[in-house]
Amino acid sequence: TLSTTIDKYAYGTLIPRKDQKIKIISKDYGLSVNSNADDILPLDGELNLIKAAVNRLSPNKGFDLIIECDAPPGTGLGSSGTVAVLVIGLILEYMEKHASPYKIAEMAYKIEIEDLKITVGRQDQYAATFGGFNLIEYSAGTTLVAPLRIMNQILNELESNLILCFTKEGRSIEDPVNIEVEKYLEGDKLILSKLDEMKKLTYIMKNQLLLGNVEKFIDSFCLAGKMKIKNLSTQPSPILSKYIDILKKRKVRAFKPLGAAGGGYLAIFSDYISRKGIIKSMQDQGALITPVRFTSIGMQVWRSKKRLIKC
User: Fold this and answer.
1) Per the database record, which ranges form the GHMP kinase N-terminal domain (predicted)?
2) Whole-angstrom distance, CA of residue 257 vs CA of residue 53
3) pLDDT at position 196, please?
4) CA neighbor of 225 nearest in space, from 238, 244, 250
5) pLDDT per residue over 266-311, tens digit each?
6) How many CA atoms lie within 13 A of 301 on its CB side?
7) Which of 28, 191, 192, 233 has its Cα between 20 and 30 A from that of 304?
8) pLDDT value, residue 173
9) What distance in Å separates the CA atoms of residue 259 and residue 175, rounded to the nearest whole number?
10) What whole-number distance in Å separates Cα of residue 181 and Cα of residue 188?
11) Which of 56, 31, 188 shows the shortest CA–CA distance to 113?
12) What is this structure's pTM?
C-alpha cells in the first residue's frame, strides 16, 4: 500500500479520575457512555470502536475520555482506524505503558477485525500511527512500513494540484470489501489478477514519487482511479456516479474514490488553471471542498500541566 497522512485529525483528551468511573464522550455523535473501570463495556452499537479499545486494554482506573474527529467515519479517510490508534495511545500513556508503533497499529487493526468483526485492511491503522508518505508491505503475517523521502518541491506540486471533495455520502450498507475478501479466500482468479495488477501499479507509483516524476505519477493515479471504479464489487451509488460524470465532462486529469468501499471522499488532480472551475462545478452539486495539506506527523501523545493526557 502506498499511503500518506493529511492534516485531518482525530483528537482525544483523557482526564484521570480519582474514582473507578469511566465516561466516554463523542463530540461528533453527541453521545456519552458511563461505566465502571472493572466492567466489560457492552458492544451494543453505541461508540463500539472506542469501547472495544478500552476493553482490550483493561485500564482498571477511572477516567473521562473525550473524542472528536475532522472527518466522519466510513468516508474513505481512515478515521475509524485513526480513532482506534488514538484511544490506544491515550490509555497506554495513562497506564504508563510503552508500546512500539508497530504494536499500537497492529492492536488497532485487531480491535476492528477480531473484537468488532469488521472486515478491514491494515493500512489505515499503520498510516495513522507512523504518519507521512510510506510504502506499507504485508507478507506472512508481517507488516513493514518504509518511509519515503520525497522532495519538498514534489510535495508542493502535488498539493497545488490536489482537490479533496466530500460527496456527503458514507460507505454503503453492502460493503464491497466483504465480497472481495470472500472471493479472494475462494481463490477467485479475477480478484487475484486485479490485486496483482494493483500491487504492480503501487510500486510504479512509489518509484515515480521518489524520482520526482509528478506528471507520470498523476497519470498512474488516473489509472488507479479507473481500476478502483471498475473493480468495485457493487455499482457506484447515484451520488458518486453524479460527481464522476461531472469530472469526466470537465476532462479532469485524474480522480479516485477513497476508501476500500469507495464512499465519501474523492481525490482529484487537476492543473492549477482549471482548479477553480472544477471546484465550482462540484460545489454547485452540493459537494464540500476540503483544504488539504500533507503532513509527516503520526500519532502524538502528551501530558498537559493540568494532568490531562492529549493525543
Assistant:
1) 48-132
2) 29
3) 87
4) 244
5) 999 998 889 999 999 999 999 999 889 999 999 999 998 767 777 7
6) 24
7) 28
8) 44
9) 11
10) 10
11) 56
12) 0.91
Paired residues of 162 in beta bridges: 269
What CA–CA distance (Å, rounded) separates 298 from 296?
A: 7
Question: What does the pLDDT read at residue 264?
Answer: 81
Quote the distance between the C-alpha of residue 151 and its chain's center: 24
Q: Following DSSP, what letter does each residue of the chain receive, concatenated?
A: -EE-EES--EEEEEEE-SSSEEEEEETTTTEEEEEETTSPPP-SSSSHHHHHHHHHH---S-EEEEEEESS-TTSSS-HHHHHHHHHHHHHHHHTT----HHHHHHHHHHIIIIIS-----SHHHHHHHH-SSEEEEEETTEEEEEE----HHHHHHHHHHEEEEE-S----SS-HHHHHHHHHHTT-HHHHHHHHHHHHHHHHHHHHHHHT-HHHHHHHHHHHHHHHHHH-SSPPPHHHHHHHHHHHHTT-SEEEE-TTTT-SEEEEE--TTTHHHHHHHHHHTT-EEE---EE------EE-TTS-EE-
Cell numbers for 215: 506528471
Could you tell me the domains of the chain? 2-147 (3.30.230.10), 152-290 (3.30.70.890)
Q: 26: which strand partners?
A: 31, 67
Q: Could you tell me the three cell numbers for 199? A: 500491487
